[in-house]
Amino acid sequence: MNQAAALVYIVDDDPSVRRALTRLVKSAGYGVEACGSAREFLDHARTERTPACVVLDVQLPDLSGLELQRELDARLPIIFLTGHGDIAMTVGAIKAGATDFLTKPVHDGDLLRAIGQALVRSVEVSKATHELEELRSRVGRLTVREREVMNLIVLGLLNKQVACELGTAEKTVKVHRARVMQKMKVSSLAELVRMFDKIAVAKTPLQAARLTRFDQCARQPVAR
């Protein structure tokens, strides 16, 4: 990772802490932007910037660090700093997606290690986000019927069962299935299932509720 391209936001209402952390982070080769409040950060932060992370004080004059974390909604990795933290607060922050929770005064090495890990996570999240956007774009090219066919074949249904479920001919399902594979750019059902799991295209029906009907479909000839 190019450290010079990485950006670390420091959000702390104590000017002396901001200055000290800014010097430390700059000494490691990272870019730095320091803010004295949550609102100042929200007004200036570029949350789409990658790689980037936030070193965030829990106690702020406007929004608390935990409230700001909810505002960001995982758009940037967060390292919490606090002089007032407790176990419950730490657990809550980590569950909400914080990468680390350090107590002031923080050791320089511990903070730089946490920043490095957060920036790596930033890159990974950005890649995953772009991949998800691409997959959703592929889904957007499917017709309504093709989505219905995909929702069923990823459950492991045979073409005959899909045809029975949708009230159409098996040969028609085969055509739709081929188009789904082409538009989703996959060569196997297993690959399509992995994609489907990532994007959660639609709420699929519970298999258990359909077993009887699927068994009936398997036994009956489908009208063509």
Automatic annotation (TrEMBL):
Keywords, in A-Z order: DNA-binding, Phosphoprotein, Plasmid, Transcription, Transcription regulation
Organism domain of life: Bacteria
Residue span(s) of domain Response regulatory: 7-119
In-chain residues carrying the UniProt-annotated modification 4-aspartylphosphate: D57
TM annotation in the entry: none
PROSITE patterns assigned: HTH_LUXR_2 (PS50043), RESPONSE_REGULATORY (PS50110)
GO biological process: phosphorelay signal transduction system; regulation of DNA-templated transcription
One term of GO molecular function: DNA binding
Domain (HTH luxR-type) ranges: 135-200
Matches recorded under PANTHER family: DNA-BINDING TRANSCRIPTIONAL ACTIVATOR DEVR_DOSR
UniProt-recorded name of the protein: Two component LuxR family transcriptional regulator
